[in-house]
Amino acid sequence: MTATKALNKPLDLDNIRSVTYNVNTVIGTGSYGTIVYKGKFGERDVAVKRVLYDSSDRLHAINEIDVLKTCDAHKNVVRYFGSKQEQIFVLIVLELCDMTLTKWVNDKSIIDVRPLEILKCVTTGLSWLHHQKIVHRDLKPENILLTRRPVKVKIADFGLSRRVLDGKSFYFYNRLLCTQGWMAPEILEHVLQLEDVRKCKFTYESDVFALGLVYYYVLTDGKHPFGEPYKSQVNIIEGIVMTTPKDVVHACSKNLYFIKLMIAKDPKSRPSCTTLLSCPIFWSTNRLSHINPL
């Protein structure tokens, strides 16, 4: 679907009625006036995402609802309950989670879960999206959510997600809103050079690059494989990786081998999510013990 057709498409809302929220209970914010509140859907606690319904964000609301209706059946994708229009806003009613991955990395006492289990869940969820021919395009710790009882890991925020058009890629239509420091080099080059964004190609591989950044972030308790924020973008463009084994505080430092493949400058060198799920990084201790050393 082209951007023009999408903007002219009526917003397919569920017009659910039993939704309430308190403007004083903000649990998250996004770009262009998007706010997430804690609310109620009937008797259920939910997250209510309020998106400004104007020409600039109309396509984001359309795509987010479309993606969620397609993919929320998967256990590692945030659940969608419905949507409605309220004055100049669209309300998207979502599963309420306890915290972002960012908060969990800073305080692991609230939810007891192994770092590798989180990464496996995120990889499984992203693999599901890719099998549904969807690229997330904004994977980062703030868009990965955790629940406490029971422990669950969910990929969230599909405002920038798109369906793959030609079996491989999606060309961005208008503006780039992906988070700095979490973009693949092939995307970042177009952004920094201010080239025609229609040439900017998002792929499954660009999602895997962001996933590799998340892996390193989790296993190092918050570090970035391309260094501090003020120089990470330049390092991403130039392929200067700042990873060191001593930074890895969870699991085996040899897992850096897989992370380096995921964040390789050449997209063709990056493994698929399906391949990652079969790698030794997720093998059990018992299985690893049966491998004969060279």
Automatic annotation (TrEMBL):
Q: Which GO terms describe its cellular component?
A: IRE1-TRAF2-ASK1 complex
Entry's InterPro entries? Answer: IRE1/2-like, Kinase-like_dom_sf, Prot_kinase_dom, Ser/Thr_kinase_AS
Which processes are annotated in GO (biological process)?
intrinsic apoptotic signaling pathway in response to endoplasmic reticulum stress; IRE1-mediated unfolded protein response
Q: What is the protein name stated in its UniProt record?
A: non-specific serine/threonine protein kinase
Task: Enumerate the spans annotated as Protein kinase domain.
Answer: 21-282
Q: What is its EC number?
A: 2.7.11.1
List the taxonomic lineage.
Answer: Eukaryota, Metazoa, Ecdysozoa, Arthropoda, Hexapoda
UniProt keywords (A-Z) are:
ATP-binding, Kinase, Nucleotide-binding, Serine/threonine-protein kinase, Transferase
Among Pfam families, the record links this protein to:
Pkinase (PF00069)
Cite a single GO MF annotation: protein serine/threonine kinase activity
Q: What class of enzyme is it?
A: transferase
